Amino acid sequence: MSSSWTVEVETKAPAAALFKGLFIDWHNLGPKLTPETITGVTLISGDGSPGSVRQVNFTTVVPFGFVKERIDFIDHEKFELKISVVEGGDLGKKIESATSHFKVEAKGTGSIVKLTTTFKALPGVDVAEDIKKAKEGFIKSVKAVEEYLAANPGAYA
Predict the structure, then answer these.
(1) Which end of the chain is more exposed for a tag (fewer CB within 10 A), N or C?
(2) C-alpha dihedral, 118 to 138 to 85 to 60, nearest 10°
(3) What 3-state class would DSSP assign to 101?
């Protein structure tokens, strides 16, 4: 049986710039803005369009070394992205599968970032603490990009 969780983060950053920084250029910004968590992001295959696979490498703060995610869907005009975990992370250890749907919506001069993750936990595995940590990590990433954009107002304009 699949389960899901959601989180919404309100920011003062414009939707287009936030989407570009948080998702399109995350391979550059992620390691710079959250070096305590991410050591690097590498495009394994493709060009960043649907079907592409990227690998996010983590520091020892994270209980696994990496996660490979496939871009399933991307809409640059509606600021939407859907990814699936294809290797690493808790795949095969705690979960059978996981997909995440991200949407950035304008709100006044700022935006709201919405994340819905759907997953199938392995039988008998409690993932409540993992979900809590994933939400905290996502919020931290969004806030880091928001701060970066505030300090660099022309970035991703």
Answers:
(1) N
(2) -130
(3) strand
